[in-house]
Amino acid sequence: MYVGDILRNRSPRAVAIGLSETVGIAAGLMRASNVGALVVRDASYAVVGMFCERDLVSAVAERGQRPRQDQLRNLQGQGRWRVSCNSHDTFAHVEHLMSRHQIRYVPVIDNGRLVGVVSMRDVAFAVDEESAGTVQAA
Questions:
Q1: Rounded CA gap, 52 and 42, in Å?
Q2: Largest CA distance in the chain
Q3: What's the rounded Cα separation, in Å, for the pair 119 and 104?
Q4: pLDDT tens-digit profile of 16-70?
Q5: Which of 24, 101, 117, 136 has a CA that sits 20 to 30 A from residue 1's CA?
């Protein structure tokens, strides 16, 4: 099964935020959009990674009560920010990426264009459906 198969079977929901925005803005956007992660873009709108709930908790733990004004670019030190996949990648490959980089969300980029986000939950659901034989591969 491929990443594109699951993206076709659900509405691709990707909420993006700029690298220069603050942790406080990111937290508010995540809450308002009811998502667990945001796609982070640089000034040229290129995807540079993800900001997720775990990053928010880490910012609070590392910086105490005052991370709200820190820009996302200041939290970008981890190499896991640069992990992505494309719609032709298999779920086994995405599972490997998630495990290797200890992440729960991966942006899906085709030909330089953001087409969605795959979560650990999506991968688990797709594997369950595939084993039950309910999803048709493209």
A1: 17
A2: 49
A3: 6
A4: 999 999 989 999 999 999 999 999 999 999 998 899 998 888 888 877 666 677 8
A5: 101
